[in-house]
Design goal:
The protein is mainly α and 175 residues long. The chain contains 7 helices and no strands.
């Protein structure tokens, strides 16, 4: 049985691709259990639709797009159960710990990122935690690069204000 034009292409390293998709989902969702479920679902969806993947789109970008959409669905379901501001900090499992940041600072950063509006949260995670370029993030999200840049700028401004306000509050409380 012959398939589409992708039969002649080199197939991806599924172990590496699955691991990257899982790490992206972990960054977006903050829960290992949800990330595992989301990663598996994203890979199943991506593979079942592989015939519609354009040759110029990398496997990572292709699967990453499915991962973001699955995480959005899970995020919406999570919000039905509880508000974002009530996230249990212990559920957050930072996929990336920034050098020079204490565990407390890393946790505060992740809590702040998770409280950003959806699009700002997604671009922040894709750029800074998953390490995608602006162009790759735009492909994953299905939007122009300018939209990624705009949302990233807004997210950085919001994070600066949020983290600065918390520092001031900590100082006032003597923490």
């Amino acid at each position: 049985m012959t398939g589409g034009p992708h039969d002649q292409e080199e197939k991806p390293d599924f172990a590496e691709l699955s691991n990257r998709v899982y790490r992206l989902c972990l960054s977006l969702l903050g829960s290992e259990v949800e990330a595992s479920d989301a990663g598996q679902e994203a890979m199943v969806r991506a593979w079942s639709r592989r015939g519609s993947r354009r040759a110029e789109v990398s496997w990572w970008t292709w699967c990453g797009g499915f991962a973001v959409r699955v995480c959005r669905e899970m995020w919406r379901h999570r919000q039905r159960d509880r508000r974002v501001s009530e996230l249990d900090v212990h559920e957050l499992n930072p996929a990336v710990v920034r050098e020079g940041l204490s565990q407390d600072d890393t946790t505060r950063l992740h809590v702040s990122v998770m409280q950003l509006p959806r699009r700002q949260r997604e671009v922040t995670i894709l750029r800074f935690f998953a390490g995608l370029s602006v162009q790759e993030a735009a492909q994953v999200l299905g939007c122009p690069p300018g939209t990624v840049k705009s949302n990233l700028h807004k997210a950085i401004q919001t994070l600066r204000r949020s983290l600065a306000d918390r520092d001031k509050l900590d100082e006032l409380q003597g923490i």
